[in-house]
Design goal:
This protein is mainly beta. The chain has 2 helices and 12 strands, in the order αβββββββββββαβ.
């Protein structure tokens, strides 16, 4: 029964790596976001529990000032990569995370996004943050890396931006 549940979860999650295989990824990688016509040069951060994407102009219909009351609502936002390419996206808020960083603790909305690198595709929770002043507009955390990747900090992203896309 446990094997059947695992297999069902494995298929639903869009996982395309065979059990036991680990792929080496560098400290940066071109990551694709399904539905976007461009990729992100992303920073791979094993110290970050979750992934984070550049999001500005976040709009929630019937927005509550209490973050947790917006869970389940649809939001729209604009995302932009480091090359200045941008697109509007919509998604459902799945939770609110309290993120601890150098500025303190801040609340962020979390959505699910299908991310891909080479032949690996995973649907992961990604928090929304204005990363417009940061070098990397997408941060890849352990929730994407878990079970499938080994990180080689000496390895850099290649120059082929299409590698992250399908």
């Amino acid at each position: 029964m446990k094997a059947l549940i695992f297999l069902l979860f494995f298929c639903i999650s869009g996982h395309q790596v065979h059990a036991g295989q680990k792929i080496t990824i560098g400290e940066t990688a071109w990551i694709g976001v399904e539905g976007l016509p461009f990729s992100y040069l992303a920073r791979v951060d094993t110290g970050a529990k979750s992934s984070s994407i550049n999001a500005t102009n976040i709009i929630i219909l019937d927005k509550s000032t209490v973050y947790s009351e917006n869970i389940g609502k649809t939001l729209s936002f604009e995302t932009r990569n480091r090359d200045g390419r941008s697109q509007s996206m919509t998604a459902v808020i799945v939770k609110v995370s309290n993120i601890r960083n150098s500025q303190g603790i801040e609340q962020r909305y979390v959505i699910r996004l299908p991310l891909s690198w080479k032949h690996v595709r995973k649907i992961v929770e990604v928090n929304l943050r204005n990363r417009s002043t940061m070098n990397y507009k997408l941060l890849i955390g352990r929730n994407f890396l878990s079970e499938d990747f080994l990180v080689d900090v000496e390895m850099k992203a290649d120059n082929d931006q299409s590698k992250g896309s399908k």
